[in-house]
Amino acid sequence: MDFVPHPAFLETAAEDPALEIVRIAADQPEAAILAALAECDGYYVMASRDELAKPFHVTDALLAQLPRLLIAASYGAGYDTIDPEAGTRAGVLIVNQAGGNAEAVAEHAVGMMLGLLKRFPECHAAMRAGGAANRNAFMGRDILGKTVGLFGLGNVGTRVAEILRVAFRCRVLACDPYLDAATVTARGAEKMEKAEMLATSDVISVNCPLTSETRAMMDAEAFATMKPGAIFVTTARGSIHDEAALEAALASGHIAGAGLDVWEQEPPPADHPLLHHPRVIATQHTAGVTHESRKLITSIAAQAFSDVAAGRMPPRIINPAVIPAFAERYRAARGRAIG
Domain D-isomer specific 2-hydroxyacid dehydrogenase catalytic: where (predicted)? Predict the structure, then answer.
């Protein structure tokens, strides 16, 4: 809604004559936006919660006003702006583009690890202030052979594990309650529970979605459990880590540095203390924002809409419990079954 997707979305959609793309400008009354959206069978939803006005997040309240809607697709792998359970209650299929930006996010995470171990932000700040004459004051560490713990071993986590294992011979640990030990091993890591992984790892990287289980998972106790001098990196979602607790862990010196691509509020306020901390690398939710990943995820999204238009069940369904109700609504709306 009033955002410009990568040209690949429009190019892919244009190949399907069954699709009509409707741009809905945000600079008009809410009622007008809702009226336009109510005429649509699909909704391509901005994924960042602070970029989309709250009335247009996919909730029970919104879906009650969109009786025609069949499918909502998140603009990326995350779906902070969508309540999948609300979709299930309304019979609306929810999909994302999981895996489409995995390479970009994994590279970003590993890049932050390298930058923090080599103390880039501290050295940069000192040079700008004219206080970097003593090079030994910024002595860093190699990532080669380090132990790295990953929260989440999905598309991104698996690629992070591969880069670290193959390029840097790291020992990779993973905490993922949804995967058994054999699957974790097959994806290049060792399965480990949260506390032990925190205490063992030289680097902790968060690569899991924001859910009721992961919200505030990295709190003061978690940071205290981390190995002294370890670094913390997150390219997942804000609210998984407690920003005040992280600031305190950095201030005490227990945590050596942090790489933050995601924030409680995006963008964070300019006076946010973590933005000004000399041992923090800060980016604005840009880990997955590359030309290559945007081309891929928007093509995947357009294909999902094409699948539904053609009577095919798309992949990457977030709320599979909806399928029976969705199939009934689809038959009633389109006069044929979806397979």
Answer: 19-319
Which of 6, 49, 159, 285 is flagged as catalytic? 285
- Tell me the per-residue pLDDT of 163-211, one tens digit each, with 9 for 90 and over: 999 999 999 999 999 999 999 999 999 999 999 999 999 999 999 999 8
* 266 catalytic per annotation: yes
Our answer to whether residue 124 is catalytic in this structure is no
Catalytic residue among 49, 108, 237, 272: 237
How is residue 174 written in tokens? 């993973």
pLDDT tens for 33-69 read: 999 999 999 999 987 778 899 999 999 999 999 999 9
Q: Which long-range contacts (CB under 8 A, 24 or more apart) does 251-255 make?
A: 254/223, 254/224, 254/226, 254/228, 254/229, 255/223, 255/226, 255/229, 255/230, 255/231
> Is 277 designated active site?
no
Pairing mode, strands 71-74 and 230-234? unpaired
